[in-house]
Write a structure and sequence with these properties.
about 140 residues, mainly alpha
């Protein structure tokens, strides 16, 4: 209902990625980066990364760019984590989820969403869920 809502844009990108609609998901990711992080010139690099490495390559490079911002306090660790997860980089996603926990990132309760299903069997993810007091079933 609210045009440009970051939460809605992010949720739509997650849903589109889950459906295999990678170009559409990438458009949502670019919109999210523009709105939340003020990254005005995201189209050219993301489109180039997509052409070079598909969705996984684009999200990996996007995660790397957000990681640089996060290291300087300019991005949420949770956002870096889910970008690495899109790229299939489970270890890096878990590293950034642990950073999100340490930083008390307000998005961590979203770990129960299906986007994080690829991590559910990982011992580090299970330990994080326990630390947060979230159910693991």
């Amino acid at each position: 209902m609210e045009q440009g809502s970051p939460a809605a844009i992010q949720g739509l990108a997650w849903a589109l990625a889950a459906k295999g609609m990678e170009r559409e998901a990438l458009a949502g990711i670019k919109d999210y980066c523009r709105i939340v992080y003020g990254m005005r010139d995201v189209d050219v690099p993301f489109d180039r990364w997509f052409a070079e490495g598909g969705f996984a390559g684009a999200t990996r490079r996007g995660a790397d760019a957000l990681a640089l911002r996060a290291a300087q306090g300019g991005a949420l660790p949770f956002d870096v984590a889910h970008m690495y997860l899109f790229a299939g980089e489970k270890t890096l996603a878990l590293d950034w989820l642990e950073r999100a926990y340490e930083a008390r990132d307000p998005a961590l309760p979203y770990l129960r969403l299906p986007i994080f299903d690829p991590l559910r069997s990982e011992p580090r993810f299970q330990a994080l869920m326990r630390r947060m007091g979230l159910p693991q079933d």
